[in-house]
Every structure is written in structure tokens, then in C-alpha cells.
Known about the structure:
Elements: H1 2-7, H2 13-36, H3 44-65, E1 72-74, E2 77-79, E3 84-85, H4 93-105, H5 110-141, H6 143-174, H7 179-183
Antiparallel strand pairs: 1-2, 2-3
Helix pairs in contact: 2-4, 3-5, 4-5, 4-6, 5-6
Amino acid sequence: MKSRERHRPKDGRGNEQARFALSFAAIAVGLLALYYFPRGNEDAVERWTASYLWLYTRVVGALIHVFDPLVTARGNVVAGRFSMQIVKSCDAMEANILFASAMFAVSARWWRKAIALTVGLAALVLCNLVRLFVLYWVGVYALSAFEFLHYDVWPLILIAFAAVDFVCCMRWARGKDWAPVVLGEAKPRVAG
């Protein structure tokens, strides 16, 4: 019994870390289930998702059109010298959901958390737009590398970006209290 007590933090950080982990897991599972749960095309979530993907297609098409005037965006397809269809998970929703879940689970003032969440999600959307822009050009000039970059490299980049994005946004949202939650308490040691 004494060995357990010895490893338990005395300042309540362990409870906060457990609360964060449980909150994050519950929120992420709920949001991912909402996004991926199979439903009919007339469902409100599916209609919202279709509109969101349509908008993503328009924005990506407009960005690519600046450099390739032949590009058009119809429905959820960007077509030009290479065609790509924007479907679920092309929108980096998994990274967005994980980031949002982590931000919702952080203990911080609600207004700071709301600002950090908005800025962080905007950064993730921008990163994903860069991903889709790059993938179009890879499809045009290095088609053999498209599948590898699309399925292996870019998902890792997006998740790594989301993790860094979270640490930055969480640090700002928590203000001065951020370090103990992420890094644990660092006690200075005296040499000698």
C-alpha cells in the first residue's frame, strides 16, 4: 500500500491528467462515431458533410486554378491535368476531431479555449489545403508517388501537425499553467 502512495502526485495533477485522458477519449470516440456512423444520404450529418466536401472542393479547385487554368471543380471532383475526388477523410476530419477533442478536454478558460480551438482548426484546414494542392501536382508530375504520399506520408504529417498545433494552442489557452500538464513538474536539481 505504501508503494502506491509514494508514486501518487500530491498536488492533484494525477487527477487532472486522468480527467484529461478520459474526457479526450470520450469526446474523440463520440465525434468519430458521429462522423463515420453509416447513415442515409438524407441524414442531416450526411447533408452537412456533403456540403462541407463540396466547399473543400471549390477552395482546392480555386487554389490550383491559379497555377493551372484548366482546372475545374464540379461536385466533389477537381479535374484538370489530373483528377481527384474529395471524399470523407480527404478533409482531414480525423485530425480535426482529435485536435478538437483534445482542446475540449483541456482545463482552461472557455473563451481562451474557444479562440485556441478556432485558430487551431483553421491551421489544420490550411495544412490540409496544402496537402490537397501538393497531391494534385504530384498526380500531374509523379503519378507513381501519389498513392504513397496520399496514404502513407501525408496522414502522418497531418497528425504530427495536429499534435504540434494542439501543444501550441493548449499552451496559449492555459496561459501560465500549461507546463505541469504536459511536461510534469520539473524540479531544479543542485549539482555538487
